[in-house]
Every structure is written in C-alpha cells, then in structure tokens.
Amino acid sequence: MQGLSFSFMEILSFIGLTQCVYLVVHILFHSRLRWETIIPLIYFTVLALAFFTDALKGNIPEIKDNVFFIEWFAWFLGPPLSYLLIVQMSRADKFPSPKDFGILILLPLSMAIAFSFLDTSDECNFKNACEDLRGLLNVFGLMSGTISLLLIFSRAELFRIIRKQRNGSERYWLVLSLIILNVLFLGTVFANIAGTLPQDISLTLIRNVLGLGFVYLVSTSLLRIFPKESSKERATRDVEELSNEEKQLAKKIEKLLDLDKVYQEPTYSRKDLANECNASEITISKVINTYFEKSFPQIMNERRVEDAKRLLVDTDAAIKTVGEEVGFNSLPSFNRVFKDMVGISPGEYRKNHLSI
If pLDDT is split at 50, 70 and 90, which confidence band does 120 have? Predict the structure, then answer.
C-alpha cells in the first residue's frame, strides 16, 4: 500500500482542524454547554469540517466529488455564522433573536437557485458536481456571503455596543478581524470566478490561510468570543456536589455565625469550629470554601466588619472598644481589616455617616 503524502496546503488544513477541535473542547469544558455557547460551537465545528474536507480530498481522489457540497457549504456558511457571532457578542453573550437566524436560509437558497439555473443530467447533478455547477455554486455562495457582510455593516450600532462592553476594545478588534478575513475570503472567491487569481495560488490555499488566521486570533483571546461560566453558576454547581452531610454541616456553620455570633470571640479558630461541629478541619475548610465561596478568615472578618459598621454609627463607643466588641484582638488589626474591606478607616466611616 502506497504511503500517504501531504502537501503544504493539506498540512495547513490539518493544523486548522486541530485548532478548531481544541477550541470546541475548550468551550465545552470551560464554559459548559449553554445557550450562549451554541453559536461558537457551531462555528468552529463547521470550520473544522471545512478544514477536514480540504485535508482529505488530495489523498483520497475518489471522495473529491462526493465531498464538494460539504466543502462548499462549510466554507460559505462562514459569513452568515460570522453575522450571528457578532450579534451575540454585541448582546453581552445573549442568544440572538429568531429573526437574526433568518440569515442561515441564504446558503440553502443559493444552492437551490444554482440548481435551477442548470439543466441537471446524469453527468451533472448532486452526486456528480460538474464544472458548470461548481461555478454557479461559487457565484451564488459569493452573493450569500456578500449579503451577510452587508447586513453586518447595516447594523453599525453593534460596533458601538461592543466597544462599550467590558473588554470592549479586544472584542471590537476581534470582530473587525473577523470581518476583514471574510472580506478577503469573498474577494479571493471573486478573483477565482473572474479568472484573475494567479495560477500558482489556489482558492483552497488562501481560504485555509485565512481560516487559520481567524482561529489563531480566537485562540489568543478565547474568552472574548464566548461567555465563561459565571461565578454564580460555578458556585451553584459546586454546592450541588456537596454530600447531604456536608450541606447539613454548612447550615450548622451558618447558624453558629449568624445566630451564635462565634466570630465575636477574638481567639475563635477553625479548630474551635471543627470541634463544635464534630468534624475535621479539612472538612470544615472544604465546606466553607465551597458553600460560602470564601476562606475561614474572610467569613469571620466580613461579619465582624458588618457589626462594627453598625456600632460605629449607632453608639458613641471608642473605636478600640468597637473593634474588641466585634472580635478583633487589637486596634491595628481592626483598622487594617476594616480599611481593606470598606475602603476607609473606622474613624472616617463614623465621621462620614454621622454628618449625613
């Protein structure tokens, strides 16, 4: 059996395929499957399919005609999907409206129109794409992509919205890069149709380079293109992973903090809490970190500071006395923790609130 050999273009296709698979896996594992991740997942899955067909057809000539329609559909679906991707990014990662998804009808419509222009026969049909059919499909695919880009440009407000978002500048340049790469792809298709593309440069090579360019841009700013799992969702998921016994332990810790106010004892430690709960310190730390999303010192000091804020406003007690009452063992410690959490010293806090 003759060994496989790959051209430079096919190697680029395999690199693009690998990068797309990496992006899909990254999205699935780091953001989990949510509505907001569906469009990026579809985009990179389709792009992976496009790279895959380009990579294989050179070494398996028998499938060249069979995969043409898959290859055509995968590459020309890029501009409509780009439109949906940009719309989603402008909406702070909310799912695009059903009306926006109407753009996906452009490509099937283009294919139907191309077939209607051709008198199909045994030599030129869906199973055997002749040169005339390929040419027509490229023309109407080009028109579909151009309409998609025109729709993007017609919605100038999307760019303003994106720039105002968190990480807006990075998102804006990513969107701009996506548009430029789509323009270059459609420009190359036009040059190929017009016969002005240099003979030593193929459409397949250029689209692979452009596809790789976009995949590289996304992989270097991955979290800009799709939403990361929120801290609230992550916390909910982590709490659900606690056993029933651990959840009961968390409720008991909550009672000791909120009702018994154990944090008001300056020397109260994690070991004391473990003894009261009849659990190991390791288990106590795990439950606190998962259920409260904080460390033991954090949950103690937060409650001490909240009590201190109330005493500073409602009483005339000295600041040192307030610190001791809420559980701090020294004035410097009280001042430092209070300023770290509130942004101002206890004295400034009292002065500001008494002057209101």
Answer: low
Q: Does 170 reside within a domain?
A: yes
Global confidence as pTM: 0.59
203 and 239, same domain (yes or no)? no
Domain assignment present for residue 18? The answer is yes
What contacts 73, CB < 8 A, 6 or more positions away?
Answer: 107, 111
Contact 47, 218 (CB under 8 A): no
C-beta atoms surrounding 340 within 10 Å:
10
Q: Are residues 270 and 198 in the same domain?
A: no
Return the residue matching tokens 């692979």.
208
1 lies in some domain: no
Number of other residues whose CB lies within 10 A of the CB of residue 249: 21
Domain match, 26 and 135 both:
yes
* E-state strands within 234-331: none
Boundaries of domain holding 304? 232-354
φ, ψ (nearest 5 deg) of residue 259: -100, -50
Query: From the centroid of its chain, how far is CA 87?
Result: 14
Model pLDDT for residues 51-67, shown as the tens digit of each residue: 888 887 665 555 555 67
In a domain, 2, yes or no: no
Q: What are phi and psi of 284, to 5 degrees?
A: -60, -45
SS3 content of the chain, % helix, strand, coil (to 5): 75, 0, 25
Q: Name residue, tokens 């780091």.
A: 30
Question: Among 208, 204, 209, which Cα is nearest to 192's?
Answer: 204
End-to-end CA distance of the chain: 88
CA dihedral sign of residues 147, 223, 162, 87: positive
Report how far residue 284's alpha carbon sits from residue 163's, in angstroms, rounded to the nearest whole number. Answer: 44
Flag the least confident range among 103-107, 222-226, 275-279, 335-339.
222-226
What's the CATH code of the domain at 141? 1.20.1070.10
Residues 187 and 237 in one domain: no
Do 256 and 319 sit in the same domain of this protein?
yes
